[in-house]
Automatic annotation (TrEMBL):
Key words of the record: Membrane, Transmembrane, Transmembrane helix, Transport
Protein name in UniProt: Oligopeptide transporter, OPT family
Location(s) in or outside the cell: Membrane
Originating organism: Massilia violaceinigra
Transmembrane segments: 12-34, 40-59, 71-95, 101-120, 159-180, 214-239, 260-280, 314-336, 348-374, 380-400, 412-430, 516-534, 554-577, 589-613, 633-651
Species classification: Bacteria, Pseudomonadati, Pseudomonadota, Betaproteobacteria, Burkholderiales
Extent of the signal sequence: none
GO cellular component, one term: membrane
Length: 660
């Protein structure tokens, strides 16, 4: 039996756990809304670390490791909320009218626990013994080090909290102005192009600008390329091939985009994801082998395992994984109970549990590796979700093919979506776990305590997701869903769930437009080649991520255009301050303002959903006014530009004062 040194700094504390849970609850609510509206989520580690440092600085015995546990717990919010990329599909196909708490909680919790367990054996190979950059994990560690290392660091910690607050308040007020109809919710221009049509739209959203800043210029340029391909090439060409002079330019362009172009985008994402992930088999298997070998040597030799290298025991990991299959099987059986698939419950549950076990390991390992390579926010979760639903649909469709009919097909689609929800929860928590463990390695944390912290975050996040999802379902509903009894007539787009449910229905119903998917796949392969050439020619200084291009083709321009603007604005800001001695501080403050943008707008809209449900009024804040649509758009542009430029200047001045 290996000797284990137990002494170490204060890490898991009651106050830290409670603070981490509170931050998780808030950020999960924000993430659920953002994901449903625009199909994107953001990493919460850095804003959580700043909030933790600012609040725990009141305690003299607070340590950097304790702050790290808080951000580890809270980071579950930035990842587990990604299950809403799939879950609303069950509402869209009419399987659920309301979001049931326990099945949703169970899918999130079981998947989250497995995500932690699956990535424990990979830590040594992919974190401590790896040269993967882990950009977000390293950034979070730097924030923690700066904030706890000196008096100026403490001052930056307090300034960082103010940055999050300012960003949150201004974005909430900006969203409130749109909700009150005092400015346009979207700035858009559509026009005829010969016999066809095209245009561009951009949501009036500081949250999306913030997301673009956080994603960076590389992803921003990739999305710009995707916008050009979609709206300057595909939409004009395809609308010209199918002229509809009776329709307005906006209706013609948006109709062709939704029915054809976004399916091409789905094919692009799928092909790019497959090629990207194909090269990961060797490092993933190598990591698992290294972890098992290390554990075996330590057990045989009785060698002492340093505190900073202690994972949850591999026996516990294996036992928890196997035990989790029991509630997973019960959850799947309950989902099938009393329906048209009752006679196939046993084989379907067996297939579902096996799929969660095998596909979950693959998804967690791949996402964990990609988090190390390009960061959690940029990890190809969309690609993983697409591959997972295709595999799940083919598997359950094979089991039920001999009794296939409209009702059976409908039930099989629902079951495939539910299984995919669990696997996606595995993937996104695996994505987060290794990033957090990298932060922990850099600040001297104990790995097993971080793994326990993430399990706590999984529990808290799993409880919030169904509550917020049902609130938004009652208030807004979702595009394409029956939306019976929904109060507002502004349904949330839930673009990722739309794609996933469309693919499931197409595979099981055998009516997917494979020709469009095939064109998209060819485009994805071409983009992989272009990316390879760009990286090779620039010595790896530049790249054009194919997944970013594919996402911009698939997602509405109202989402991607503000992200591109935010990425360019962030690049210009960071370039302007980079040569100054206080430049790095200004950059960190800028990141926190942008995180605040996302949190503030999202929480405001969750609150607005609550007000809609409580009042029974679809637009409770709307104020009648006689301004034209053009005036509303100009107000949105001017006000948004003033807020962003003003807060960037505030970040630079504040950083300068700290350095003085």
């Amino acid at each position: 039996m290996a000797n284990v040194a137990l002494a170490g700094p204060k890490e898991i504390t009651i106050r830290g756990v409670l603070l981490g849970i509170v931050i998780t609850l808030v950020f999960t609510a924000a993430q659920v809304y953002l994901g449903l509206k625009v199909g994107l989520t953001f990493a919460t580690s850095i804003p959580a670390a700043v909030i933790s440092m600012a609040l725990l600085s009141a305690f003299k015995d607070a340590t950097i490791q304790e702050n790290n546990i808080v951000q580890t717990i809270a980071s579950a919010a930035g990842t587990l909320a990604s299950v809403i990329f799939v879950l609303p599909g069950l509402l869209m196909i009419g399987w659920w009218a309301h979001v049931p708490f326990w099945p949703t909680f169970g899918a999130c919790a079981i998947g989250g626990v497995l995500g932690v367990m699956y990535t424990v054996p990979l830590r040594r190979a992919l974190v401590s013994q790896s040269d993967l950059p882990y950009p977000e994990g390293v950034a979070a560690a730097e924030v923690l080090k700066v904030g706890t290392s000196s008096r100026s660091g403490a001052a930056e910690g307090k300034l960082g909290l103010m940055a999050v607050i300012w960003g949150s308040v201004t974005s909430a007020l900006f969203a409130a102005a749109a909700g009150a109809k005092l400015m346009a919710g979207e700035v858009a221009v559509y026009f005829k192009a010969g016999s066809g049509a095209t245009g561009i739209g951009a949501a009036s959203s500081l949250a999306l600008l913030g997301a673009g800043h956080l994603m960076g210029i590389t992803v921003g340029i990739a999305m710009l390329v995707g916008l050009i391909i979609a709206w300057a090439v595909l939409v004009p060409v395809l609308t010209s091939m199918d002229p509809m002079p009776a329709l307005s330019a906006a209706d013609h362009a948006l109709g062709v985009w939704s029915k054809q172009v976004r399916i091409i985008g789905a094919g692009t994402i799928g092909a790019a994801a497959i090629v990207t992930l194909a090269g990961l088999g060797k490092p993933v298997l190598g990591g698992l082998k290294s972890a098992l070998e290390t554990a075996r040597k330590a057990k045989m030799t009785g060698a002492e395992i340093p505190r900073a290298d202690q994972d949850l025991p591999i026996f516990i990991v294996g036992l928890v994984t196997l035990l989790a299959m029991v509630p997973a099987g019960w959850l799947l059986a309950s989902f099938l109970q009393g329906g048209v698939l009752s006679s196939l419950a046993l084989p379907l549950v067996a297939v579902g549990v096996g799929y969660i076990l095998v596909a979950g390991v693959f998804a967690a390992a791949v996402c964990g590796y990609m988090a190390g390579l390009i960061g959690s926010s940029n990890s190809p979760v969309s690609g993983i979700a697409i591959l997972t639903i295709l595999g799940a649909s083919l598997s359950v469709g094979f089991v039920g093919k001999h009794i296939m009919g409209p009702e059976v097909a409908h039930a099989l689609v629902a079951y495939a979506l539910f299984v995919t929800t669990v696997v996606l929860a595995v993937a996104v928590i695996g994505n987060d776990n290794l990033q957090d463990l990298k932060t922990g390695q850099l600040v001297g944390a104990t790995p097993w305590k971080q793994q326990v912290g993430l399990l706590i975050g999984v529990g808290a996040g799993s409880a919030v997701v169904p509550l917020v999802l049902e609130l938004l379902n009652r208030a807004n509903g979702f595009a394409g869903a029956p939306n019976v009894g929904v109060i507002s007539d502004n349904p949330l787009a839930a673009p990722q769930a739309t794609l996933i449910s469309t693919l499931a229905k197409g595979v099981i119903g055998n009516n997917l437009e494979w020709d469009l998917v095939g064109y998209g796949a060819l485009l994805g392969l071409l983009l992989v080649v272009v990316n390879f050439v760009v990286k090779k020619a620039s010595g790896d200084r530049y790249s054009l991520p194919p997944l970013g291009v594919g996402l911009a083709i698939y997602l509405p321009s109202a989402v991607t255009a503000p992200v591109v603007v935010g990425a360019v604005a962030g690049w210009l800001f960071e370039r302007a301050v980079s040569s100054a001695t206080w430049g790095e501080t200004a950059k960190r403050i800028g990141v926190l303002i942008m995180s605040g943008f996302i949190v503030g707008e999202s929480l405001f809209n969750v609150g607005l959903a609550g007000l809609i449900v409580a009042s029974g009024v679809g637009e409770p804040l709307a104020i009648a006014n006689g301004m034209s649509e053009t005036t509303h758009m100009l107000i949105a542009l001017v006000l948004g530009g003033a807020i962003v430029s003003g807060l960037y200047r505030w970040a630079a001045r504040s950083a300068q004062k700290i350095a003085a």
